[in-house]
Design a protein that fits this description.
Protein name: Stress responsive alpha/beta barrel protein
Largest sheet: 4 strands, antiparallel
Distance between the termini: 6 Å
Number of helices: 3
CATH topology of one domain: Alpha-Beta Plaits
CATH class of one domain: Alpha Beta
Helix content: 25-40%
CATH architecture of one domain: 2-Layer Sandwich
Pfam families: Dabb
Order of helices and strands: EHEEHHE
Radius of gyration: 13 Å
Organism: Rhodoglobus vestalii
Strand order of the largest sheet: 2-3-1-4
Structural class: alpha+beta
InterPro entries: Dabb, Dimeric_a/b-barrel
Strand content: 25-35%
Length: about 100
């Protein structure tokens, strides 16, 4: 099992704009579970504390293998969801590890 963690800084600086962005990202990404083989779990959540020092939003997903993560990364439905993410974010950091 591979856990995929992605953190983003949002374009919006205000609380209302950030909520709209996180909701849009979650709506685009979370339904991919069950639509992309090997994607077992996925959640998108906003940062809850220390907003000045932390990233704004996180994605945590689990994939059956490194190969399944690669399929997810290039799957057309993920690419389409990625357009929503890119429209709402300005910075990205990620890490993948075995669990």
């Amino acid at each position: 099992m591979i856990r995929h963690i992605v953190m983003w800084k949002l374009n919006a600086d205000d609380v209302a704009g950030q909520k709209v962005a996180v909701d849009a990202m979650a709506a685009a990404l979370e339904p991919l579970v069950g639509q992309i083989e090997g994607l077992e779990r996925l959640s998108v959540r906003p940062n809850a504390a220390n907003s000045a020092a932390n990233w704004d939003v996180i994605l945590v997903s689990e994939h059956t293998s490194v190969e399944a993560l690669a399929v997810y990364a290039t799957h057309p439905k993920h690419v389409a969801a990625g357009a929503v993410v890119k429209a709402n974010t300005r910075e990205r950091a990620a890490v993948d590890f075995e669990v």
